């Protein structure tokens, strides 16, 4: 996939090697890129590889969510959870287009594209960047807790606060189904997706036990605040830990 990268992507990847923030807030709000993928989908590995490149950019928060609706083809996806399938379907319902497929990228909860088509993914990212997603949410940690701070905002609706525990990379050998014999690398894999509360525009601080959110293989916790259950993203933040 390296040869498909645009000049803009290549420059962003080079810059990302020099900046690794542990907290992202409104000073440089990134764009959320969610890939809905499956180990049972022969079209997905190219998209999985593209996520491996995009996750290096400091202007993006990239996640991979494995869905379970291709399990009937002969291979049970080892990373899939029904709640990830539900999230993808909720996005389709919110957009009103009913489009659910793999590999599908959803960008800032607004736009979708075929995840294996990098120019289309880049176009969705640029569209999302022009929309407001600048809520100054932040996340920090103590030894045993994760603390999320939400500011007072000019918002009168209900926005869901999601916490995502993310593993940086997981490789899986696939022994049956459309990808038989392949070993595929999955990047920024969501291992735990937690609906952590609702934000209605008032300043708030939320506290969670780390052990209730993070999995043993998770290196990051992403905070996603979005309109309703699966609407446009209002704010993002990231906390990083070193996995021993």
Notes on the structure:
By secondary structure, this protein is of the alpha+beta class. It is 20% helix and 35% strand. The chain has helices spanning 7-16, 45-54, 82-95, 118-129, 210-213; strands at 31-37, 60-66, 104-107, 111-114, 138-141, 145-150, 159-173, 183-199, 204-209, 220-227, 233-240. The longest helix is centred in the middle third of the chain and has 14 residues, at 82-95.
Structure in a nutshell:
With 244 residues, this protein is α+β, with helices and mostly antiparallel strands.
Name the descriptors:
244 residues; four-stranded mixed beta sheet; disordered N terminus; 11 strands; 35% strand; four-stranded antiparallel beta sheet; alpha+beta; 5 helices
Number of helices: 5
Q: What proportion of the residues is helical, as a percent range?
A: 10-25%
The beta-strand count equals: 11
The Cα radius of gyration reads 17 Å
**Measured distance between first and last alpha carbons:** 30 Å
> Strand count, sense and closure of the main sheet?
4 strands, mixed
SSE pattern: HEHEHEEHEEEEEHEE
Oligomer: single chain
- Which structural class do you get from the secondary structure elements? alpha+beta
Q: Looking at the structure, what is the overall shape?
A: globular
| Percentage of residues in DSSP E strands | 35-45%
Q: What is the spatial order of strands in the main beta sheet?
A: 2-1-3-4
The low-confidence parts are 1-27
**Overall pLDDT level:** 89
